[in-house]
User: What shape does this take?
Amino acid sequence: QGQLVESGGGLVQPGGSLRLSCAASGIMFSMYAMGWYRQAPGKQRELVAGITRSGTTNYVDSVKGRFTISRDNGKKTVYLQMNSLKPDDTAVYYCNARLLGTTAEFWGQGTQVTVSS
Assistant: This one.
């Protein structure tokens, strides 16, 4: 059974940086498309950034130029580097793994990111 464990969240001042990590186990990591989602209080969960098996990335407009998603298949880990953080980035961030063309999908437990002075 696949498992995803996020880490790296916390409290940061506006303009600061954080790097989230998501370690996978129990899946053939290199075969999965990976994504970072976030959910703020009272809002729907949204896709923040995604990376395909081949390394193609996509981002929601609000984080383009500030966030970078990357993956290390050897470590079975996906990262989200977040720079120039804003209060609107405050949310619980979730890691997602999806095997395209199948129903196989896993979620992490989430990590809180709070941007506040």
Notes: The mean pLDDT is 97. The radius of gyration is 14 Å. The first strand starts at residue 3 and ends at 7. Residues 67 and 82 are 4 Å apart (CA to CA).
